[in-house]
Amino acid sequence: MAKLTAMTNINNALQNSALHTAKVWNAFHSIAEGPTAAFKADPGTDPKVPELIPDSKTFMALSRNEKITFASSAKHNGLLDKDLEWTDLTAPIFGQLRNRLKTDYLKRGDESIANFPSGLCTMFACAVLGFLARNHHLLDNGSVVELFNYQGEQGGHAFVVVNRAGTENDVDSWGAACYTIDPWYARHRLNAPGSNAVKDMTAGTNYSDLAFNQFLKDANSRKVHVTFTHLDLINTFI
Question: Global pTM?
Fold first, then answer.
């Protein structure tokens, strides 16, 4: 499947989902156009994003308090006997917990799209990843999908990156195969390509958006939070 075909199919599908009309909370005023500047969800009703274990978090580097927390989560998920102590948490169980939380996160994201009146960027990103798990056939075989965190002057932001190369903090190095999916940003914009949820990270297509690229570059940092392989997505609903 060609990259342009994948971008088009994903973008068209998301435009027919609740994410295309949802209101946004904590808008970045610098990117809001026209009436979108007035969009404001009720944070009290915003759905909560499920827990994930960051890729950077390794078992060997866990603190005592982190082990206690993850042991409790492992018990809750049936991966550790409730009568055992936090010291009984092992690297294999921690790995099973990481995978269980990823699956639960994807299922929650998929579920959320059926009723998504508004949300934070983190829930938009969760919904996108759930959508990709449900519709993994829209991706090229072997695709790698990453949940990214952005830290900038206006605050933090979460978005999805597909088939990135290069260095995570260097947008210009992400390569010709890379595209992003960010319906939260799209809800701030009035016209394409800004209003497209899918953005091509290289110039030359209808999905190229220099303003979005600059938005990413304006961040103080961009960092991968959690990586999902194509197989992770495929296995979610098996």
Answer: 0.94
